[in-house]
Design goal:
By secondary structure, the protein is of the alpha+beta class. The strands form three sheets. Strands 5-4-3-7-6 form a five-stranded antiparallel sheet. Helix content is 31%, strand content 33%. The protein is built from five helices and ten strands.
């Protein structure tokens, strides 16, 4: 309206010019700032990842959320009776969490986050396995890279898969 009054033109003839100026004022600054920021920070790593793949959400048998941990901090998962124990790192210390779930219900999570089954009762995170060692009786154990962590038994059926990953 202001433009049409001062230019002595009809309102609809000035509408195109007004819309172009509006776009220039409202959108162009944000585009320029976004492009500048993208160029400045393109090589810097992201400190915290917001990807849903970076954390594991453990649900119990009633589909209620019980534990959220970073995928890289999970050491191993052990089956105990009708539940599982999840061993993970928190502030450099080994923590354990008992979850009312079966090993079968955790298969999808294990596949998604690259946890490898090493025995009927164990899933292990191969990124934390230091070596596979055989004792005098012929049993194979996965030794973890975390001090104070128990050696995880590896059965012969799962040994080849775990050894090929390491």
């Amino acid at each position: 309206m202001y433009c049409s009054l001062f230019s002595h033109k009809l309102y609809f003839l000035c509408l195109g010019t007004v819309l172009q100026q509006l776009v220039a004022i409202l959108i162009y600054p944000y585009v320029i700032i976004s492009l500048t920021e993208a160029l400045l920070y393109k090589d810097k790593p992201v400190k915290y990842s917001n990807k849903p793949e970076s954390v594991i959400r453990f649900l119990d048998e009633h589909k209620k959320l019980k534990l959220i941990v970073p995928a890289s901090s999970v050491l191993y998962i052990k089956a105990v009776d009708n539940s599982v124990k999840i061993f993970y790192l928190e502030s450099g210390k080994i923590k354990e969490f008992v979850l009312r779930a079966s090993m079968r219900s955790l298969e999808a999570i294990a596949d998604k986050y690259h946890l490898i089954r090493c025995q009927r009762s164990y899933y292990v995170n191969p990124s934390h396995v230091n070596i596979l060692r055989k004792d005098n009786e012929g049993f194979i154990f996965a030794v973890l890279d975390v001090e104070g962590a128990a050696a995880i038994p590896v059965s012969k059926t799962y040994y080849d898969k775990l050894a090929s990953i390491l």
